[in-house]
Amino acid sequence: MAHLPKLPKKLIATLAAAGLTAGLVACSSDDDSSGGDSESNTSRGPITYAMGKNDTDKVQPIIDKWNAEHPDEKVTLKELAGEADAQRDTLVQSLQADSSDYDVMALDVIWTAQFAANGWLAPLTGDLETSTDGILDAPVESATYNDTLYALPQNTNGQLLYRNTDMAPDEAETWDDVISTCEDVTADNNDCLITQLKQYEGLTVSTAGFMSGWGGGIVDDEGEVNVTSDESREGLQALVDAYEDGTISRSSTGATEEETNLAFTQGQNAMAINWPYMYTEAEAEGSAIAGKVEVQPLVGKDGVGVSTLGGYNNAINTNSENKATALDFMEFIINEDNQRSFAEASFPPVLSSIYEDEDLIEEFPYLPALQESLENAVPRPASPNYDELSKAIQDNAYAAITGGKSVESATDDMASAIGNVS
Asked: Using one digit for the tens of pLDDT, what is the confidence trace for 269-287?
């Protein structure tokens, strides 16, 4: 399992130039005060919970249960926009203003380091210390920054390889198996594998998956930029070759998760890489492939591949006036009953025990494959400048895939651009 990188000196210099050093001092000092005063750490009372509106239907029943049991410490849901960038902008504006409007915030896993580095999150230490026992390792890593836990994982996500068994009857064990299957599929004038290669965050996820699946990665275990290693280049070359030879369908360069979902559930592709929500869509009434869907973990060079980690981490605003209640609510979300409700809503839970529930496995046959995917998942690099880092990956990977650059040139430029922001 890859470790989250330490904050390099070069990044501190970059942030200093951007006027962000105050946040860094707050979260890296030995007498860290970013958790607020001790009174707020132990204070109790009503709190607000901010989350993107696309997923609040999974959490609202949990809020209702909490409110029924805690009439003096009720949680008010503050729905944010559905689009991730808009969610982040709203939170950042509030936090930069030192507002306490949001006590608990559901953060995309890639935001945790950014927010922690700016001193916006109360570290879960001292009065706010909590246990992560029973939580899958990768989500805990994604909630950790500079060896300190800053958030509590709420739900997680790992990608899966889907197959339309009419078109691709056999499970692939290696990437060569995928290529072989696709040769048969495309010989019949059908599209084979669709994935997300449009120039957005999905392309960063795809690039990282191929690099890691061939033994490399965006960063190595020491947190150093690793895109120019032989293994990383081999992984990106495999992605480029697969797009060129038709293993990966041409439509992928215009595909987000939803285009992937529509194409696969309409029977247009033999295989697809996507998140677990697509299983329910594929088996739903009206799907062209209902009853003909099988899933497995991603496939890498020689076996099980590496998924990039998704999901939400819940974190406490450093300006919250009722942090004790905030922490208890975050812990309440991840009790077994509530995590089971997430599984039932195709919202992957973070408790490992849920993936061993035989009743749930019977209802959701993809759970064992998802557990294996999550056990092999790698969080994205923990960088306060993650947006710029991701853009560097997207720009250069897209150029390599579409023929604008060689893999060697693309990874050289990628490493240079990442070095300028991290």
From this structure: 999 999 999 999 999 999 9
